Amino acid sequence: MQWRIFGVGVALTGLAASGLTWDHLQASAVEQHSIASDHVTTKAALYPRSPSEVLRVAADMTSRDDPQACELFEDAAALEFAAALRAPSCPVAVRKLAGQITDFTTYASYAPHSVVVLDRGPDAVVDGCSLRWGNAIAPQPDAGPGFGRLTVSRITPSGGGGWIIDHYQPCPPPPSTTAATAPPVTRTPSTTGLRRQPPMYAPAYGQLLGRAIANGDGGVCELFVADAARQFAVAHATPSCEEAILALSQQVSHPAWYSTQPGGITTTTDSAGHIVVHACTLNWNSLGPDNVPAGPPMGHLTTAAEGGGFVIVGYQPCP
User: Fold this and answer.
1) In this predicted model, what pLDDT tens digit does every residue of 229-256 receive, in sequence order?
2) Distance between CA 125 and CA 150 in Å, rounded?
3) pTM for the structure as a whole
C-alpha cells in the first residue's frame, strides 16, 4: 500500500506545480519522506484535505489519463466507477472518461459554484454532475462531461488528514435520453421552452433554487409539479411560481453568495418516502461574516424521484 500512498503524494505535488494549489500541498513533498513511519497517518496527510478538493484532484488526474487517479478511490468505489464506465477496471475507466474530455487543459478548472457539496460530518457528498467553466460574464464551452457524484470520507475518523472516495454514482443521462423513459409528470411551463434536467441529489436544490432566485429565473418552475408550483405561488402571495421567483429575487442582498450551496440545509423523509429539503435556517458563513444573510429562506421542499433526478412535488413556507 505504500506505493499507492506515494503515488497520490507525487500526483498532488504535481498539481501544485501546475497551478492547482491548496494550502496543504506546500508540505506534501516533505510529508512523503515520513511514509514509512506511520501508514495511516501518512496516508491521511497526503490525500486531499477537503471534499471539494477530492473532485478537483480526481478531475485533473483523469484529464491527464493518469491511472493513479484510482488511488483516490477505496476498492469498492473503484469497482463502482469502473462499472459506471462499463470498464473492466478503474484504470480503464479513467482512460474512457479521459476520452470524453474535450479540453484537458481546463477540465479541472471548472467553476467552483457549479459543484454542490453537502457536508454531513464524518462524510460528505460532492456532486460533480453539473460542471461549468468560466462565469456569467465570460462563459466558456464545456471542457468535458460531469465527473459523477462522490461520497467521500475522512481517512482518519477522528478528524484531520485527507479524504478518500468510498462511493461513486454516475451522472444521470442527458434529458433527451431520460425523457423517453421518465414517468409522466405535469410540470409548469418553462419560460425558456427547454425541459430542465432535475438534480440527481435532492439537497442540491439549495444551490439550484438559490441561483434561480438570485437571477430571477422563473424557468426553474419547470421542476415543480403543478400543485407544488401553486403552493409556492400562494405562499409568496403571487399569481404564479415564476412571479414568486421574481418577488424573492428582490430580497436577495448578495446574489453571488445566494447562488452557492448554503449551509444549514437538512433533509427528512416523510411518510410517503419523499425527501423533504428544509431550507429555512440558511447561512453563508463560509463566504462572509457569520450570520449575515445573503437572501430570504427558501422554505420546505418535498421532492420525489423522477427520471434519474428529483422534482418538487410539495412546498411549505418557513414559519
Assistant:
1) 999 999 999 889 999 999 998 998 888 8
2) 6
3) 0.50
